[in-house]
Specification:
With 136 residues, the protein is α/β, with parallel strands linked by helices. It has one domain: 5'-nuclease (Rossmann fold). It is 54% helix and 10% strand. It is built from 7 helices and 5 strands, in the order βααβααβααβαβ. The protein has helices spanning 6-13, 24-34, 43-50, 56-66, 76-92, 98-109, 120-125; strands spanning 2-4, 39-42, 71-72, 113-115, 131-132. Strands 3-2-1-4-5 form a 5-stranded parallel sheet.
Length: 136
C-alpha cells in the first residue's frame, strides 16, 4: 500500500494557471490509479488538503476526488508513536512537524510506503523505520 502525502495530492489536484504543464507527480498518480495500485490517504492529509479552499464549489469537488481513496484515521497508538517520533527528532536535531510525525507513524503502522515530495520525510526516515515510495 502507498499512503499519499499532501505534497503529492496538492501537485495532482491544485489548479494550474494557463498552459502550465502537469507536474510529473500528477501524471504518475494518474497511472497508479489507472492500474489500481493500493493507494490511501491519512485523515490529516485529507483535512490539510481541504483547508484553505476558497469556494464551496472547489471544496465539494476536491472532497469528492479525495473520497475516492480510502482514508485512514489515526488511532491512539498512531498518536503515541507520532509523539515518540517527534521527541526523537527534536532530540536528534531533526526538524519535524507534529503532522509529519503522525503521517509517518500511520504509514509505518500500516506497513505501507509513503509517497511525498517533501524531503523532511527522508530525514525522518533516518531515525524511524519509514518506507518511502520512490518513482523509478
Amino acid at each position: 500500500m502507498i499512503l499519499l502525502d499532501t505534497s503529492v495530492l496538492s501537485a495532482a489536484y491544485r489548479r494550474r494557471r494557463g498552459s502550465a504543464p502537469e507536474p510529473f507527480a500528477a501524471t504518475h498518480l494518474r497511472q497508479l490509479v489507472k492500474h489500481n495500485a493500493p493507494l490511501a490517504i491519512p485523515g490529516i492529509v485529507f483535512q490539510e488538503l481541504l483547508s484553505g479552499v476558497r469556494t464551496e464549489e472547489q471544496f465539494s469537488r476536491l472532497q469528492m476526488l479525495l473520497e475516492s481513496f480510502p482514508i485512514f484515521s489515526a488511532t491512539p497508538p498512531d498518536h503515541v508513536a507520532a509523539a515518540r517520533l517527534f521527541n526523537t527528532c527534536r532530540t536528534k536535531g531533526v526538524a519535524a512537524t507534529l503532522i509529519d510525525c503522525l503521517i509517518a507513524a500511520q504509514t509505518r503502522a500500516r506497513r505501507a510506503a509513503l509517497w511525498s515530495l517533501d524531503q523532511d520525510f527522508a530525514r525522518i526516515a533516518r531515525l524511524f523505520e519509514l518506507k518511502l515510495y520512490h518513482i523509478s
